[in-house]
Amino acid sequence: MKEFEFVVTDPVGIHARPAGNLVKEIKKYADSKVSISKGDKTVDGLRLMAVMGLGVKQGETVKFTVEGGDEDAVAEALCAWLKENL
Predict the structure, then answer these.
(1) Domains in the chain, start-ordered, CATH in brackets?
(2) Is 8 annotated in the active site?
(3) Per the confidence metrics, is the pTM higher than 0.85?
């Protein structure tokens, strides 16, 4: 299991469009399970409505948990994508 935290810098947080793009990115890594946590709430990274339901705003920290055979590579790629897009 690989975990990392990310502070959202997007001015509007993770609303519909960024959440949709995030889910699409996570779908590329079918061999790994990605969970996203904010506070005490954890959701499956493949469920768009659940990701949007976290209500992540600019400046808030979310934790990503990656489980699977290629978890190190997935976590690294996902972290790079987040820095570029959120």
Answers:
(1) 2-85 (3.30.1340.10)
(2) no
(3) yes
